[in-house]
Amino acid sequence: MRVKWFHVTARFVAPPPCRTTEGGLITHYTLQYTRRDADPLVPVQDAHLRVQGEETTVSRLTPYAEYDIRVRAHNAAGDGPLSPPQVCRTDEDVPSAPSGIKLIALSERSLRASWLPPVEPNGRLTHYSLYVKDLSGSQEANVTRVNSCTESEGTTVECMKTLRGLRSGRTYEAWVRAATGAGEGPTSTVVACQTTALAPARISSFGGAAVGSAGSSLSLRCVVGGVPPPSKRWLRAGSPLHIRSPFHLDGDALMIRSLELLHADNYTCVAENPHGSDSVTWRVFVLRPPTPPGLALIEARSRELELELRAAPRVPGHALPKAYTLHWRLAAPEGEWRIQSASPGPVILSGLRCGSAYRAYGSAGGPPGTEISIRTSGGPPVAPPDTRWIRSNATHARFDTSMWSDGGCGPVALKLEWAGSGVAGARDVPVGGEVILGGLTPGSRYRVAARASNEAGWTREVYEFTTSPAEGGYAEEVDAPFPATAGELALLLALCAALSVAALTILAILLRRKRTDGAMPRVTTSDKAACGTYRPPHSTPKLPPDPPDVYEISPYATFAGGEGIGPGSRAYTLQLRALARHDDEAAPPAHQHSTDEETCLDAYEAQRRRRRRRHYCPDHGCSQDSGS
Questions:
Q1: At 607, phi and psi to the nearest 5?
Q2: Which side of the chain, N or C, has fewer Cβ within a 10 Å radius?
């Protein structure tokens, strides 16, 4: 493994170290490396390597193994701190030989081969190659490819393969090789067995060390063979084991559920038939749960929290962590715990509430880690520090809501409650502009309670202001009301629509009447063909020449009161200013007139005046011309 390091911090790359601020010239470095996935029963062993310079190669490491790499600097003043650990894995290599192999007789024509995985897999096992050869013949060994064996919780499952179709009474040899992506490893030991109809009891499983974590389950698999099929029993520390909780039989295996430290002991499987017996013993180790990881806050944002999950150092007697999880919930109000898969290093929690408190802890499959309190950035709305956001005159008050801050958590809902001079009220108002309260009493004191809220919480402040006296004049003319609510806006729209319909209806009626009036007939008098007069509904006879007793009431109305004229047949004009009539006479009906009609009436008046002059001419020596 080649290792190179730099002068770095957790967040940025630093420049080369300053010789004056770091205590002098760096003399050398110490490289510390520790295998992470070693046997949990073996104490942790740290290896150290003295290095000159900032780069080195580490040899004699285990293939496909994880290591923690840390570096410490030294100078004349002493030893510096260790750097944060860096985890790396070596490349794959061919595996070692399988650690054990068995071959037992099942009948006169079948055998069963079983073997254990390599002690050093040196990579991810892909398959096994099983070689079987008949010693009585000269042919080559038969090769069978077997997929890699799975692992159960806490122990390695041995691989097994039944060989059928063999010849009775023949002796067969068997051996096996394991393979990874890098190739096949060396062969296992060679074992031999003879097919027979009277096979003694044998156990294909392997004993040895079985390791489990407290609180988990452990399975001890005991697969037997022989003719006739053998019986099987279990012993604990040499004494018969009574099968009751937490011990259970699961097919060929003894299952120990909810492991505790007191379950650590020797367990033996015994198989017997008339032709022989066999036994296998397991030494069970119960490890304490994995040490939980640490958790620290790196950065808080309005809706995200960046945390660092720190793996705990390996402790002998504790199980190795297989997976890490991060648990978190809202602190107030108390929410449900949420679980998120994680790996050692930076972890981001997203989709959080702004300005809210959370609780979080890490776990490695065992007990929970230390719970920490964290909070997203932002907070409740911030109120104005004084009453400068309120301006008032004698009857109105203006509120500048833009002086309220959202606290970094988005939209704010603001509610105002006011009381004073015997009146009180409340209203939800928008934030970001000005709202006006009207109808106040001059020279009165009012109290306003403002409550602003957002998703981070709420803020409530109480303010007081006094309207100016009526005789003092207005400090500022304010005539705008509070913003209308949704209900008020709907009512206003309905009223406007109704008024619009009414106006359109009236306009239609007026247009129809105008067209009807425009269609009325006009009459032409003998005096001037172009003049039109209104003909009343009742008939009006032609007026005779004016009698001597004609008198004038006004310049706009004249009347003829002769003997031959009845009260109902009096002539009249369209523009009357005053009427002189006898008490027994009825007024003519009112009617509309036009400009043309007024012009004709003026001509008519002139004609009547000429007639009067002609009537009085004999006394003044005037001409007796008829006039028109």
A1: -65, -40
A2: C
DSSP string, 80-146: EEEPPPEEEEPPP-----EEEEEEEEEETTEEEEEEEEES---S---EEEEEEEETTS-SPPEEEEE
Q: How many CA atoms lie within 13 A of 468 on its CB side?
A: 14
Q: Which residues contact 592 (CB under 8 A, 6 or more apart)?
A: 517, 534, 574
Which tokens is 109 given? Answer: 């024509």
292 exposed, middle or buried (CB, 10 Å; 0-12, 13-18, 19+)? Answer: buried
pTM of the model: 0.54
Strand pairing report for 552-554 and 557-558? antiparallel
Angle at 96 between CA 58 and CA 86, to 5 degrees: 30
User: CB burial class (10 A; 0-12, 13-18, 19+) of residue 550?
Assistant: middle
Q: Which residues contact 505 (CB under 8 A, 6 or more apart)?
A: none
In contact, 44 and 316? CB cutoff 8 Å? yes
Q: For residues 430 and 396, is the Cβ–Cβ distance under 8 A? A: no
Instruction: Give the pair of three-digit tokens for residue 385.
Output: 């520090």
| pLDDT tens-digit series, residues 104-115 | 999 999 999 999
- Residues 209-254 pLDDT 10s: 998 888 889 999 999 999 999 999 999 999 999 999 999 999 999 9
Q: Which amino acid is at 468?
A: S
